[in-house]
Design brief:
Distance between the termini: 165 Å
Low-confidence stretches: none
Helix content: over 70%
Shape: rod-shaped
Radius of gyration: 61 Å
Keywords: Coiled coil
Order of helices and strands: HHHHH
Number of strands: 0
Number of domains: 1
Largest sheet: none
Oligomer: single chain
Structural class: mainly alpha
Length: 173
């Protein structure tokens, strides 16, 4: 065996160097693989966290959207109701304005008529106060008086007679 040792000394040294080199490479590759696994695990954890966060955001935004749609539906219902009430109020306003205009015009017409009546009454009073009328009062006044009639009116006949309630009410008056 010693005979082969001298001749194979170079080969054994080369093999020993190759063994050390392969061990170093194996160790470096194991470290690289461990780093790659750790990086992969971190990346997967980060992606899973992102997915959970995104799902939570989707759920939150979906709930918010549902609330907003509910508010929008309520607002549309309020708008419809308010529009209906507004239309009714505008109709009432138009009717009230027309009635007010009509009554105002009628009042103005009545004022003109009343002014004419007041003027006619004042003229009549002026005529009645004039000397030509007051001088003839003694002559024409007795014929204008009604003579007291003895008789009963239909209303008196219907009553049947004086009862206590009628007498009592006359006394209060």
């Amino acid at each position: 065996a010693n005979a082969y040792e001298f001749q194979s000394g170079g080969v054994v040294g080369i093999l020993e160097k190759l063994r050390l080199k392969f061990q170093d490479q194996k160790l470096a590759l194991q470290k690289a693989e461990m780093n790659a696994k750790a990086n992969y695990a971190l990346l997967m954890q980060k992606l899973e966290d992102n997915m959970k966060e995104d799902k939570a955001q989707v759920a939150t935004k979906t709930a918010f959207k549902a609330v907003c749609l509910g508010h929008a539906a309520a607002a549309k219902a309020d708008l419809t109701m308010t529009s209906t009430v507004k239309a009714e109020d505008e109709k009432k306003l138009g009717d009230t304005n027309a009635k007010c205009t009509f009554m105002s015009e009628e009042f103005e017409k009545n004022q003109v008529v009343r002014a004419g009546e007041v003027e006619a009454i004042e003229k009549a009073m002026e005529i009645l106060r004039s000397e030509s009328v007051t001088g003839n009062a003694g002559k024409h006044l007795p014929t204008m008086l009604q003579l007291k009639r003895i008789g009963t009116a239909l209303l008196q006949l219907r009553g049947g007679g004086d009862d206590a309630a009628a007498k009592d009410s006359r006394q209060h008056l």
